[in-house]
Amino acid sequence: MTDVGIDAIEIWTGKLKLDLPNTFAPAKGEDPEKYTKGLGLNASSFPDTYEDIVTMGANAAHRLMEHEGLTPEDIGRIDVATESSFDNSKPVSTYIAGCLERVYEGKFSHANKGERKFACLAGTQSIDDAYNWIKSGRNRGRSALVIATDTALYARNDPGEATQGAGAVAMLISEDPDLVSLSTEQGYGSADETDFLKPNQQFPSVDGKRSVQVYLARMREALEDFEGVAGRTHTDDFAYIPFHTPFPGMVRKAALFGYRHMIRDTSMEDDLAGEIGRQPREEAFDSEGDFEEALREYMDGLKRTDAYQEWYARVVDPTLTISREVGNWYTGSVHLARASALKTAFEEGRELAGERLLVGSYGSGAQAEIHAETVQPGWEEKIADLTIDEGIERRYDLDYDEYERVHDVHNHDIESDGDGEIEEFTAPESEFVFDGWGRM
Ligand code: HMG
């Protein structure tokens, strides 16, 4: 059976930067370490006034097509994953294809286009759609272009405001991919939840504390479901574990739970028993409260063990490098985590071909999906092409007043001047920019 997976990737960050410890924290009267240590974030990428999900997605896709030497003929479908769509009828992929058709000769008239929505999970679901399309033999030798693009904005003074972000990840899904192949096995954890939702509204209504619990519960179910088909997972099975990263502190929590799950009833649990005891078993407790207290104590101990800290530093922390600087990109987030890990391995000169990743995607509403990936022999060349570091470095550093003005420009509930003109920020040439409706 032919391998199918991600052949190439391109990452486009919003052009502005909101510095959390130096700009956001003083304005909010908060301790900077709440953001850098608590949430694990240094900054977020913010969309400039001439940027939106279409421009960022089109710029990422254009760059991907350029360095892969692709023409529209090579692409049989364009799937956009987003939870920031502005059109209830036309999929965002049609807008993006329209942009690309201004640059490339030939049209995407043969390409199937769509838009996928399940909060942050939709990027992975679009990859799954492409995978199934190729595996079924309907692709006629063509690849799929998957673009995860979002402006992850929250209302001002919402606790989520510190976790905002904006950017797009474009991925080419092909047979015999150069970057990673995807496992047939997948696991799901899904339930109707209301902790994060946007019913006919731009900014989400969020119960932040509950959303953390829902994320952990759905991820646990997905891991168990994955193990039901792929067999038990162990801490040494995977070179990296990229997870959806709304903020690195969230992944820190998920990793500890994942580690505990993986060492349960293994020699690793035996080895640690002298130091922190054995994991509490629910059935041994009379009340749920007593079990939870015992579990909390065990987890506190586990977190401090050398074994856990070494594993976390090696397998999880490298997935968070990009996120720390750009915040939550919703549909793109887990794909940033994968790229971040592979980039670290590349920079360390590590040989990774044949090694496996355990990828955990998540979308509020809520659903988690876990699958495995195998790194392919061509991975280094593809990762060497990434320009995300330059993009992060080049961002304009907003002061707090500028941040509020730009946030207002992106707020659909605030009336614009009415002439469709954008504010004074200078849009660069040779990029797709938004300059008002009807004149994209
Ligand atoms: P908050 O309530 O303002 O923050 O916002 P907090 O008081 O919980 O503090 C955060 C952490 O910082 C805590 O660490 C504090 O202890 C620590 P923890 O106890 O959790 O490990 N802290 C400090 N550390 C060091 N020095 C200090 C200090 N002060 C505090 N001085 C909240 C947190 C998550 C509620 C907020 O960011 C939020 O609402 N975010 C949006 C929702 C979200 O991201 N949820 C994550 C799971 S849901 C998800 O991932 C889906 C999503 O991507 C959407 C989608 O799928 O479409 C969001």
UniProtKB/TrEMBL annotation:
GO molecular function: hydroxymethylglutaryl-CoA synthase activity
Name of the top EC class for this enzyme: transferase
Domain of life according to the entry: Archaea
Domain Hydroxymethylglutaryl-coenzyme A synthase N-terminal: 3-175
InterPro entries per the UniProt record, alphabetical: HMG-CoA_Synthase-like (IPR053544), HMG_CoA_synt_C_dom (IPR013746), HMG_CoA_synth_N (IPR013528), Thiolase-like (IPR016039)
Transmembrane segments: none
EC number(s) stated in the UniProt entry for this protein: 2.3.3.10
Residue span(s) of domain Hydroxymethylglutaryl-coenzyme A synthase C-terminal: 195-388
Alphabetical keyword list: Acyltransferase, Isoprene biosynthesis, Transferase
Listed GO biological process terms: acetyl-CoA metabolic process; farnesyl diphosphate biosynthetic process, mevalonate pathway
One Pfam entry name: HMG_CoA_synt_C
Annotated family: Belongs to the thiolase-like superfamily. HMG-CoA synthase family.
The protein's name: Hydroxymethylglutaryl-CoA synthase
Annotated organism of origin: Halalkalicoccus paucihalophilus
